[in-house]
Amino acid sequence: MEITKATIGSDPWKNASIRNIRLSQTVLNRSDKACELGQQLDPLPSLRDTSIQQSNARIHAYVRATRAVLVKLRESLLDTNEEIKSLLRGKEDLEKTLEHIRKDVILNTRSTMQRQTRPPREKDLDGADDLLGAERKHLLKLKRILEAQLRSVQKQLQVLDGARKRLTASLQERSRVLDLICHAVSAVRGAGIKDQAEKPVTPPVEPLGPYTPECARVISTAAEARQRSTNLRKEVAEAIEQTVKLQKAAHQSVNDGLTQKVAETVTMKQHLLVGAGETQMAIHRSQRWYDATEMALGYTLGPVAYSDLTTRERLDRPAVQVYQRHPGNQLPEAREIVKGGEGLQVSLNATARNVGLLRLTKKRVDDDARDKHRAALIDASVTRMRRRLGNHRWVINGVGC
């Protein structure tokens, strides 16, 4: 627009208007440029909706990532619970085996105490005592090993319980932002979704992200605790299996030893009874010989009263008197009778002494056989008790055990 020169108005008046016109033109151009720039840079009218959608998308992404972390924490918690259950079952088996060991120690002590009631001559240490002593040492060693294993299991259970508590705390802390989203594992793993390209993975570890270092540390600690628990369960199972084998072997060895001792004792008792019978027969023979010798001595000495002698038995009978009328005719009859009587008396004394020795020997043999019988009964009762209580189905310090 071209401004004509004013002919009547003054120049200041005209210049003022021109300046206003130019200022208006400048402002107009600047406004047009601002509009063009605003069309390029200014937010659209849908900014509110766009901001809401972006915020919701960010929230959804964070919540979905947190749900993936939550699923991982939950799986770790479930695995930890299952490991605790398995370790508790192993602990129960270990306590049961340890109880059997304690019962075997008590049974060994009872067996030893019951064998102490044998007769004094049967209390000498034998192979059965050695087997009982070896069994006791073996059982005490196994008991110490199992008690150490039990302490390790209890300590590991405490570690697992601490890991479970930390997992539960992390799970509760992470689940605080999941009130408005499905917690199903299928929503994270993609179960039943055919067109899902790949399954979601655990987000990276970030201090302010869904997967915090604390969660990663808790999961790692729980995994290490579960691995140690698995190894410990294997060790406990092997220890229990080995202990049961050694325990049964020791128990059977003692039972076999006691059975063999009973058999040897019964055999020895039978030999003693045979010897006692032979000794009794020898006593009868010696007694008969004593009676016969005593009778022969009586016949040799003759009657006590001289008046009871017959004429043929007298030393001064007529035939002897007639024979002794010549000098040097002496008869050895009296000397032989005295000598024979003395010999018979010596034989009688020896026979009486032998009879006394035989009776003393028979008494000792009978006492020995009686002690052998009592010892065999006691050992047999110990064997029966061990077989009856070998199944461990009895209560310690209970009635009837």
Automatic annotation (TrEMBL):
It holds the Pfam family Tektin. InterPro entries: Tektin-like (IPR048256), TEKTL1 (IPR038949). It is found in: Cytoplasm. This is Coiled-coil domain-containing protein 105. Keywords: Coiled coil, Cytoplasm. GO terms for cellular component: cilium; cytoplasm. Residues 77-104, 136-163 form a coiled coil.
